[in-house]
Write a structure and sequence with these properties.
With about 90 residues, this protein is mainly α. The protein is about 45% helix and about 0% strand. It has one domain (about 20-85). It is elongated, with a radius of gyration of 13 Å.
Length: about 90
């Protein structure tokens, strides 16, 4: 049976990005995280958890001229990889 998972990003701090891009970046993060979890599943350590309070997304590099969508995808990848670091 497929398990239902709800992702709620309560606070997302994006320093150094234009204010106008914040919603586009946030939407891209949510969409990419949903896609990655759907394809790869959640780490077993989180399947029994009711809530994850924080995830260390680590660091990442953004190329000059990157679109909000590509930035969001890269951030989502860091967050997803951070799931494994918070076990």
């Amino acid at each position: 049976m497929r398990q239902s998972i709800e992702i709620n990003i309560d606070e997302l701090i994006l320093e150094g990005f234009p204010y106008i891009d914040r919603d586009k970046i946030g939407n891209s993060i949510r969409n990419e995280l949903a896609k990655m979890i759907s394809e790869k599943g959640m780490p077993n350590a989180y399947l029994d958890s009711q809530q994850i309070s924080t995830v260390n997304g680590g660091s990442f590099f953004i190329s000059k001229g990157s679109t909000p969508n590509s930035i969001g995808k890269q951030i989502a990848k860091s967050i997803f990889e951070g799931f494994g670091n918070n076990r």
